Amino acid sequence: MIQLLLVLLGAFVVFILSTLTGGGASLLLMPLVAVVVGVKAVAP
Hints:
Elements: H1 2-21, H2 30-37
C-alpha cells in the first residue's frame, strides 16, 4: 500500500514539474518506479 502511495505522490510531483518546465520531467519518475517494481521490470 505504501508503495502505491509513493508512486502516486511521485507522479503528482512530476506532473507539476513537467507542467512548469515544459515537459521532460517525467524522466524523474523512472528511479521511483525502478525502486518500487524492481530494476528488472523497468525498460532501459
